Amino acid sequence: MGRVARLESDTGYYHVIARGNNKEMIFRHPLEKQYFLGELQNRVDEGDISILSYCVMDNHIHLLINADLDLMAEALKRTNIKFAMRYNTKYDRVGHVFQGRYKSEVINTDQYLLGVIRYIHNNPVKAEIVSEAGDYKWSSYKAYIGKKDSLINPEELEMIMDMFNGSTKLFEQFHLEEDMIEFLEIKEDLERQREERAKRILDNYCNKYGVKDIEQLYDNRNVIEEIVIELIQLTKLSHRRVAEIVGINRGRVHNIARKL
Asked: How many Cα atoms sit within 13 Å of 41 on the Cβ side?
């Protein structure tokens, strides 16, 4: 089977993710992160891509790029190959370093563009590596609050900050808001985020009705139905998993889902 053709963005903006092969921690050490960002800087200097946001985690990277689709593909291919050659030589290994091709999603609205920037910067927070996005060294967050970062296109940065009226305070506050939609992510992290969102939803209902656990709301049919609908719509968990979380049978969840 041939490779599926990538979707082309009408705006030229793409959210890109690449991960280590077999879930390996290929960016575990600072030198690996520095080298990868250095290679990205070379691609930026060559004029092939423009970067709005990035975050390098231990086993994967997130990028927000503005570029022609073919030029971006070639730039990322060159970057990954150079990183892989250096990595294999350094650690005396052979084989793939990255798991297949990078994944990408198109960005066609300002709202989604801002959401992706927030999502990328908050990756280390959601992974509980740091408590605040500004505490993580290997992302572009600080570029938006005054620190120079040559990887970030200054014109793109200005455009983003104009959406916050040039206010770093509004930019920081925006990053404290919770994302209720899903962005491109590796499967394991996506499942974890869904589970965490489900827990927050249940906690919110417990707090709202002053109960310790959801079982105390079982007699309130309307509330249970409301909870199930919210879990289905906001977490995208399976009906079976929603039933397990709420503590009701799967058939009841199916019946509620039919009303959507």
From this structure: 10
